[in-house]
Amino acid sequence: MRYGLMTVAAAVPAVRVADAYFNERETERLVAEASLQGAEIAVFPELGITGYSCQDLFRSQQLLESADEALARLVDFSRQYALMIVVGMPVRTGSQLVNCAVVVQHGNICGVIPKSYLPNYGEFYERRWFAPACDIACQTVMLAGREVILSAERTLFVTPSGVKVGVELCEDVWAPNPPSTALALAGANVIVNLSATDELIGKHTYLKQLLSSQSARTICAYVYSSCGFGESTQDVVYGGNAMVYENGRLLADSKRFSLSPQLVVAQIDIERIQAERRANTTFSASMRGAQAHTVHTGSTESNVPFVLRRDVNPWPFIPNSSDMENACEEILSIQTLGLAKRLAHTHCKRVVVGISGGLDSTLALLVCVRAFDVLGADRKGIIGITMPGFGTTDRTHDNAVSLMHTLGVAAREINISTSVMQHFQDIGHDSAVHDVTYENCQARERTQILMDVANQVGGLVIGTGDLSELALGWATYNGDHMSMYGVNAGVPKTLIRYLVRYMALYKVDKLSKATLLDIIDTPISPELIPADKAGQIKQKTEDLVGPYELHDFFLYNYLRFGFKPEKIQLLAERAFNGTHPHAGVYDADTVAHWLKNFFHRFVSQQFKRSCLPDGPKVGSVSLSPRGDWRMPSDATNFFLRS
Hints:
Blueprint: E1 5-12, H1 20-36, E2 41-43, H2 61-77, E3 84-92, E4 97-105, E5 108-114, E6 120-121, E7 124-125, E8 139-143, E9 146-150, E10 155-158, E11 164-169, H3 179-185, E12 190-195, H4 203-217, E13 221-226, E14 242-246, E15 249-253, E16 262-269, H5 270-279, H6 281-286, E17 293-296, H7 324-346, E18 351-354, H8 359-375, E19 382-386, H9 394-407, E20 410-413, H10 417-427, H11 436-457, E21 460-463, H12 467-472, E22 485-486, H13 493-506, H14 510-520, H15 541-545, H16 548-561, H17 565-575, H18 588-604, H19 606-609
Parallel strand pairs: 1-2, 2-3, 10-17, 11-12, 12-13, 18-19, 18-21, 19-20, 21-22
Antiparallel strand pairs: 1-16, 3-4, 4-5, 6-7, 8-9, 10-11, 13-14, 14-15
Helix pairs in contact: 1-2, 7-8, 8-13, 9-14, 10-11, 13-14, 16-18, 17-18
């Protein structure tokens, strides 16, 4: 395991009913293939050594002996591999027969897990042949020429790298209280399921929902292997389902109803699972008293060079495109309701918003409009103020004025150039020096105007800064950094375009739509430096602080999972390597440069976040000092140590 990533395989081998020799050879073949792909765990179907559909043939002494001999050969075969192999077979206890999973690694039988719940309905009468785990006394059995403990006690297989693997079989996960729940609470971060699931109309959809839900509720990886072509079709058909889930998300699955053997390989993120569990106090509280017997295995690390196999989303904050409209409406509704409650609570009839013609102030204005509409208030209670200065271009100015007009809000224009020049004179600053003083004086003058107008009209100043700017500290302290309610505080920069586009396409008139679409296409800029000779924006934010899509990627993966910089670098290189349409392409050096920049700014600018105004959280990541992120302003930047 490297970077906290473990490669796992779910196999659907070719099978011949009651032919243990053939089935074991097919298992060997897929084990070898899994090893070549760097797998550390390979999971096979329930009773795969004999075939699941043997029925009364399970009473055959010859079949049971051939299964034991097949396991012995598999154990011997496994000596040349490090990966953990989990196979299914019938195990004799003397007076009972047990449906078991056998864990094999590097020439050893690490453990035997009996099935807890046996179906006894429809076409399945497992109790006719097998005893459930609850009926089994802890005992020593002979298996493949070795003495092995067989017990119903919950068991975890622990690798030297700390990965804890729990095992359940087929019907177990369909039970109201699956063994995997207890195993996960006892520490298992990977659950494997050896299954033999028949196909019925609608059953596959429910199965996927079940596995997704169980992996999400237990915050674990779930590796599922079910038998396929080759099992008896006397009364039912087995489709060959192999799936890998991680905390509710499907990473990989097999092709159903295939006539060929399949090996589904996926990479699970153990560090991510552990980070989610640590952050989820409900999960931690549920772990009290959970226990399991532990078996320490040998190293499962492969000699195959590490390759990142995971598909990495370059835009973790962006909703899935198939549900984009509903997601945008939900996010905007959260922002709207937050502001509406604040207005109702304060009995405030007016709000004041600085409108620059950029994305952030546009979204804030749209949220104000929605809030006033929800409250049944006159939109003229929204005072939009555009405050052109030294860097304002005609494009942004005209868009700001046009949008306020078409949305029907009260519009004002206050040019800040004269007052800022007076301030330069008062403090003795040369206006020809375009430094941080030159820029921040403009930002603070604008905030002063907004606050004073709010006092005049008895209103609230609505903040426009977004989550990405808060992460980078890209705000003037006590300038655009401050407001009375920050509606965009939980919205990252990469998401704002989608929200504005949604409003443009579905929620506003044609004139407002045209303006909004042009705002979306306008380069992101604070416009604090004079425009170029052609009157175009000269100061582009992403040239100064880096691409926002990179910073939002860094922010999500650090805040949500606490990943180390080297892992974030690895993931970013995969996400932005040109394989994802519409995502930027950045080489390793570029990623490393902006990653270092991100952590430098993120740590050093905490003092700005420590005194943020209220604002609604809309996603899983927030920087509110009262909520998700509480960090000392004087923290050492240990990320950048060599």
